[in-house]
Amino acid sequence: MNADVEVAGDTEMAGDTGAGAMDRITARAAAQLAVLEQVRGDLTALSSTASVDDGRVTVRLDAGGGLADLHLAPGAAQGDAERLGRLITEAAAAADLELCAAREAILAAFTEQFDDTSVEFADTPGAEGTGAVPATSNCQPTVVRERSSAVRSNDE
């Protein structure tokens, strides 16, 4: 004779309580994998564009912060090569800041979506250590990082 046992809101047959918990874990993992794949796709599809000098210098960065496109309109930097270099860097830095903010928004939404894991599986044997990992931002624009590295190496 089998007795019914209540396990985290599910009624299951005695001796089968671990299977219900495992089914929940498997379903949750499948859902997280689907969301991770979506996040990866969203991050890969990112790009950012910024313009300076009244739109005469336009930079587009790819998802990794690499230069994907540079458009220089007639009259950019008024023909001054040094100023043009600064304007390109300024546009790239602005685009990189936007890219960084977009990445953080995608990752923050992902983190928030799965911050309840420890509550959901609190009654699951061996669930210690599950749960939210606080999101921390180390997002520093690529252009700024590279420029800072160049300044340090020139000073040494």
UniProtKB/TrEMBL annotation:
Per the UniProt entry, the signal peptide is none
Positions of the UniProt region annotated as Disordered: 124-156
Against Pfam families, the record matches this protein to: YbaB_DNA_bd
Protein's name in the database: YbaB/EbfC DNA-binding family protein
Name the species this protein comes from. Gordonia alkaliphila
Q: Name the residues that span the membrane.
A: none
What domain of life does the UniProt record list for this protein's source?
A: Bacteria
* Annotated Basic and acidic residues bias: 144-156
